[in-house]
Amino acid sequence: MAIIKIKRGTSDPTAAQVTNIGELAANTSTPKLFLKTATDGTTTPVWIGATIESSPSDWTSATKLATQSAINTTFMPKSGGAFTGDVTLNAQSDLRFADSDSSNWVAFQSPATITANVTWTLPNADGSAGQFLSTNGTGTLSWSNTGTATNATNLSGGAAGSIPYQTAASTTTFLAGGTSGDILTYGGSSAPVWSSGTGTGSPVRASSPTLTTPVLGVATATSINKVAITAPATSATLTIADGKTLTASNTLTFTGTDSSSVAFGAGGTVAYTSNKLSAFASTTSSELAGVISDETGSGALVFGTSPTFTTAIDGGASFGAFASSTTLTVGYSGTSASTTNISTGAVAASTTKVINIGTGGATSSTTNINLGSSNGGTVTVNKDLVVSGDLTVNGTTTTINSTTLTVDDKNIEIGSIASPTNVTADGGGITLKGATDKTFNWVNATGAWTSSEDLNLASGKVYEINGTTVLSATTLGSGVTGSSLTSVGALASGSLAAGFTTVAATVGGTGQSSYTTGDILYASSGTALSKLSASATAGAILASTGSATAPEYKTISLTNGSVTSGSGTLTLAIQNAAADGSTKGIAAFNSTDFDATSGVITIDTVDGGTY
């Protein structure tokens, strides 16, 4: 078992006696333990611990401890006890009384603000049943009996049949009874009022009452539900058949002679002599032809010498009878902007209609169709366009707005002019529009294709020259035997070929080409490594000989003390230079702690010495 002894003395250590940071020292007479917090001769070691005091009056420092007996006589234990002085609960803290299982409680609490201190003195005995605590105004409480309250309905002073009402806060008076059948109505801020009303029977209170035999009076103009009815001079009758409704959306006035009648059909709108034919139901051409005496031809009517057909012309109508070079104008011939639609009328779902233009030529004849004006304009094809023959575009710019361009031909020619040369091909290629142009062009000056962007080959693909791989994602091709590389990444494996010279220390090498067993490398300068040969003496240790000089092998011998195989102790001690007999440090081990096979020594005691 190893024993470690720290530096010790019979008094508190001084700054000069303990000089290393982290060093411990002990006063064995107190006892106290001290810690040095700086490496110097001026900082006094810090005491680790606290003084134990038995009296509360001696607890003057946060580093002092109290004895158990002092705690028992000064603090209230959780099990209970008696207070010998006043008890104050600060900041509206509760005085709580828990129930039998302490799950709920009742409590007393002070108000938020108290203008003066108050002490209530309880009675010296319990009161009688039904009594309550009351104060005399000076803090003395006593038991008091309850009084008799007057019910709010015990009002007196009104005559029989009178009605009590409130005239002001906490003031009640009476309204004398009215006449039989009177109705009490609200009088606002004044007293309520009795109203006699008219007629007999019960009052009508509903918002939609049923009046069995009402008489509405003989006023010259009587209004019922905002409808004014003007009384006739003598009498008049308005009769509406049972279950029928009379609805007038506009002002309606009937005039004429007596016994006149109007018969309305089953629905429809009344037409007037001033109405046009549009007021009547839709009429067909044949129906209209039956009432027209000067028509020509048969079938549907065509009005005017230059008619406008708004729907399809059916029945296989043909305009082939026109003379040669005849112009057929379709659409508006005026100078204003207009739109002309030629439609197949295909309105049914999944129906295909075909319009043929220029298909009536004889065998070997040629039909040329010109679309658009030579003065400008645009020909728009709203859906798919199929060209069975060649397509020639003679303009200067061809714009394709489709998202996918598909070409069956496996070769695309660009720059195909009458006499192509390298000069005419210069700058030709592909431009992809983006935030900046992405180009792949032929540059005549370099005689090469030039890309403005990086080229990223897919995984597993390589760069080849004349069918030979020159570069893959991870390897130079085997045919690449020469290189002007100035740096490479970390090499995971490989070897240097025979005849390769040494690698200088300045670039991570050693500058050495051969070694002898036991050689050790050391820095002989800021840019070179040298070899130190192995020592011829067994057990020699490597030691520094100072700055800027080569290390050397050293041997250590013991001139005082010996280690025997049976017993004996070797003690290494540094004596204090002063004549006080103290030691600066002791390390001792016994011969039994020496392993002759491995050479390991186990130290029994490490002693920090005395001061």
Give an overview in words.
This protein is mainly β and 611 residues long. Among the domains are: 3-70, no CATH class; 518-557, no CATH class; 569-607, no CATH class. It contains 3 helices and 29 strands. It has helices at residues 68-74, 285-289, 422-425, and strands at residues 3-5, 7-9, 24-27, 32-35, 46-48, 52-53, 65-66, 95-98, 105-108, 132-135, 141-144, 163-168, 171-175, 183-185, 193-195, 221-224, 227-230, 429-432, 438-443, 448-451, 463-465, 468-471, 520-523, 529-532, 541-543, 552-554, 569-575, 583-590, 605-607. The two termini are 26 Å apart. Residues 148-152 and 557-579 have low confidence and may be disordered.
Task: Characterize the biggest β-sheet.
Answer: 4 strands, mixed
**For the CA atoms, what is the radius of gyration?**
62 Å
Shape annotation: flat
Average per-residue pLDDT, rounded, comes to 76
